[in-house]
Amino acid sequence: MQKVLSLNNVFWRRHGDTILDDVTFEVNEGEQWAILGLNGAGKTSILDIIMGYNYPTSGSAKVIGTEFGAASLPEMRKKIGYVSSSLDKFHQTLNKETGLNIVLSGKFSSFGIYQDIDEDDFKRAKEIMRDLGLESLADRTYHTFSQGERRRILIGRALMASPELLILDEPCSGLDIRAREDVLKIVQRIPEEQRHLLYVTHHIEELTSAISHVLLIKDGKIVAAGPKREVLTSDLLSETYKTRVKVFFENDRPWLVVNDAEGNND
């Protein structure tokens, strides 16, 4: 089975502190993964390794056929779509852009269009916006969008380059319930588009049936990794979240209840 990415015995140290501690996991073709953990657990550090923004202090990494240290990481990044609430820091640049131009800019991984766009590019961008229910935003500028619309237009931008791997880093952060569900409807369709998804969050209720596998991380170490229902257990999540919790599934979607100190919710 072809591997989409693999991290083997990865350590990453910064200023003498071990941020990632012997991280090993792999994503195989056809699998859709989520990474769960508390804030500061190491989720973003794993993404920085996968994207090639940080090199492992020790261990090895291979992403979409690119072995770190043996091939061009900028070329690898062209095969990855990335959406994060951290992209909001580019709002001053985005504010003056229309929805259509933002989606189009995804072809070049830029904010703003500085290269020639052909008719096929326009056609693809409009198709993406139609598929994501964003047609009404085509001629509106970013500063008029709601938070949910902003997140969805950035997903459209990420899809413009037809990435093999789509990374969504807490895409529902700061969204209300309706906006969150609009984003999750898009997530649900990703596997149908013959691409792979890496979904990062600390809210298990965001893991729709599109997610097949889960990695749990705590304090830079992997707690568990594997098929969703095998990993999302009350015991493993209690360890990951450092809080006693109970997990149940409804419509193949997990939900979490925090147990009280006496365990009366068991």
UniProtKB/TrEMBL annotation:
The name this protein goes by in its record: Iron complex transport system ATP-binding protein
Domain ABC transporter: 5-244
Source organism per UniProt: Jeotgalicoccus aerolatus
Keywords linked to the UniProt accession: ATP-binding, Nucleotide-binding, Transport
SUPFAM superfamilies tied to this protein: P-loop containing nucleoside triphosphate hydrolases
Superkingdom assignment: Bacteria
Gene3D superfamilies, per the entry: P-loop containing nucleotide triphosphate hydrolases
Gene Ontology MF annotations: ATP binding; ATP hydrolysis activity
Annotated InterPro entries: AAA+_ATPase, ABC_transporter-like_ATP-bd, ABC_transporter-like_CS, Metal_Ion_Import_ABC, P-loop_NTPase
